[in-house]
Amino acid sequence: MEKKNTINPHTYSIDEILKHFDCNENGLSSEEAVQRQERYGLNVLEKKKDKSVLYIFAEQFLDPIIYILAAAMILAFIFQDWIEGFAVLFVILMTTLIGFFMELQAIRSVEALQKLAPVKSRVLRNSEVQNIESSLLVPGDILILEMGDVIPADARLLDSNGLALKEASLTGESHQIEKNTDKLDKETPLSDQSNMVFSSTIVSRGNGKAIVTGTGNNTKIGEISKLTREAEKVRTPLEKKLNILSRKLIWLTLILAALTTISGYIQGKELLMMIKTGIALAVAAIPEGLPIVATISLAKGMLRLSKENVIIKKLESVETLGEVGVLCTDKTGTLTENKMVASSIVVQNERLETFNIQNQDLPVPEEQKERLFQVAALCNNAGFDKENSGDPVEEALLGFVTDLDGDWERLRQDFPRIKEYPFDTEKKRMLTINQENSDVLVCVKGAMETVLKHCDYLQTGVEVIDFGNKEKWLEEGERMASNGLRTLALAYNSVKELPSEPMSNLILLGLIGFEDPPRKDVAQAIETYRNAGVKVIMVTGDHPNTAQKIGEEINLIKSGSNSENIIYGADFNNLENISKEEEKKLLNASIFARMIPEQKLNLVNLYQKNNLVVGMLGDGVNDTPALKKADIGIAMGIRGTEAAKEVADVILMDDKFTSTELAIRQGRNIFENIRHFVVFLLSCNLAEIIAVAIASISSLPLPLLPLQILFLNLVTDVFPALALGMGRGSKNVMKQPPRLSDEPIITSGRWKAIVAYSLSITLAVIAITWYAYSFKQYHPVIVNNMAFYTLILGQLLNVFNLASRESSFINNEVTRNKWVWGAILLSLLIVVTAYWIPFLNTMLSLQPLEIDQLLMVILFGGFTVPLSQLIKRTAHFSGN
Ligand code: ATP
């Protein structure tokens, strides 16, 4: 079982700590790790106990809707109306059971989804780097740390290469903290323990190695959060909205039911009968189960998306996805393939020249070539780790060396690395210092504007000359970028001793352009987004010309479009006092180039200030503030850092831009399905109320008896409604603008539709009652039965009114929904069975009908659909 670790690892030297944990820098063996696992347990924070199944069931009863149903049941028992009392009890049990199973399923789906994207760590085990689930870490494991990692356990540093961490999750301190390996005093406060890394903090720069000293609850974060951990009930905003709606509807229903009872009594109908009818109406019309249907639809949506490689971390994100109006995406790897190939190079031999290096030739002196190879091979982290392929641009550089018959592995042996300043997205460059015999070799690569600024000299053939005409180089680089190439400048310096200012006196070697073709399916996705009113924005650290060219290729901007569409990161700093005009320009732009992460955050703020719901794709540790701030943060599963994945709401396991489209489509569909569900249920319920109300204030017999109302509530209302909630959605859903986040579930257009559909059904029911009673003068029981069946038919057919107006009446999202047909069949089957089972037959006061009476039922019931369609298509209710 978990063993408490009481040492102060920061007070140990590296040797002491390795000795204490009985291991060495090559890591534990697998067998040892398993044994330690048994001793220390899993590296997870112990959760407060989850709610028991019984508790979840009991919770279903704590609902005002159930209180009202219970009151109705008690009233029925007081009137000694046993059958009705039990029928309401049955309704209560069904409602709570459905709620219970749905909530259980929702909880299970969320749990299952959380397991789909486990957090991983890189550790040394059996002297090899392995990617293992962080929960399997044990004290003594050697962690390999890199920028963007979320620290999975408390650990003492063994090695630090410019390592800095953001420890806000632990200490609240937002600045990055520099780390090293020096032994510290016992009294050193947590925030100053620079030789330790703590669970849940983030590597913001550099890389290093550390030995795990505490796991699970035996970490600093474990100690702090012990008090606050609790399994929270999942309550999405949609669920809350539906809760509010159903509370409002309770009152409306109660008032209508009471009015119907009173008016019926005044009209001379039997009081007891009217009270029972009122109660039944109230029971039937209260829309129990609304919120839980939302939860289950959202959970189903999450599961469907997970099969498409899209992991949604929080239920409510599915809902927000449908509201996204702006989608900010990075370029490399998302819009492009991320398969870099060095394709051209600019160097100066006799003159400044651009060579195509894909034909594997570079006609420059060997010395010049050798220097290029040195920087390409040494200022590069690819190829070190066989498991992890590394940065594609760096891989491409190794390919460049190999293709031109260089040997990067030999170079790495001959020029051992002394120091590294890792690539930094803000500085946009990487620098290494290597041993060159008795000298020191500084190698730099990075964005051309940044590197050229620091170059005082230029390699020209075998000579090094003063660097005069930088403009010409910049022009050449821009031309390269205009062809869509990602461009890097390579520079070096050879000095006698470690320089205090390594970025000075640099010698420029040349510019290399890398080809990275756009992904094939992106243009289509952008077109779909255009039709769906979602603005796609490219936010890249790359050069504006590269961004423009790629933007044109994927149809994000028109070919040759003016620079209005492209904003340069540097122009984007101070958004505080910008004019309306400038703001408009920013809002209209489609490409933001040379952006640093902080500017990404400003961009999210700008859109949000303009009431746009923002989706933001990102992968780096520096993207985390923007991912967090965006309404939907989307991280890449393959390329993304653990930090980005942790703060994101959505993870794209296949790193594909097109997967966002699936997610947004699904988000929109789910909301529409829930709307269909609500509109259907309310129109059916309203039809029942109005039909009974009209009959009770007129001299007509009641078209529905109390038990018949309860029966409808359980059969014809429920199944088709649930089926509508399961639909795959309309094809038109991506042809409409995004939903506004403050848009109510039931818009005024939809309220009108509810009234129209319910009146069509009511009209059919009242018409058949009048026809059978006043015209044909049938027995009141037969009249009632005809009205009852007409209502059932009208309600079942009402599902077909829910398809969007734009789709065809025959082939639409409702008719394509197999669940709908199943629900209709099932409901009909239950109605027929109820007729044949003597007990139910008596309960529902059913009598055999003649063929012509049944035909009348079909005629009147069937008439409801064309009537509803006529109203819907002529009145043009918005949103329907
Ligand atoms: P994208 O939107 O294309 O994904 P990004 O926002 O991730 O780009 P960065 O990776 O920050 O952009 O790259 C910005 C610039 O930094 C590049 O144009 C390139 O000049 C330079 N750069 C990129 N990778 C490296 C690297 N490994 N070493 C040195 N410089 C690099």
Automatic annotation (TrEMBL):
The keyword ATP-binding applies. It holds the Pfam family Cation_ATPase_N. The chain crosses the membrane at residues 53-79, 85-104, 249-266, 278-299, 677-698, 704-725, 754-773, 779-799, 819-839, 851-871. It is found in: Cell membrane. It is a multi-pass membrane protein. One of its GO terms (cellular component) is plasma membrane. One of its GO terms (molecular function) is ATP hydrolysis activity. Belongs to the cation transport ATPase (P-type) (TC 3.A.3) family. Type IIA subfamily. NCBIfam families: ATPase_P-type. This is Cation-transporting P-type ATPase. It comes from Christiangramia crocea.
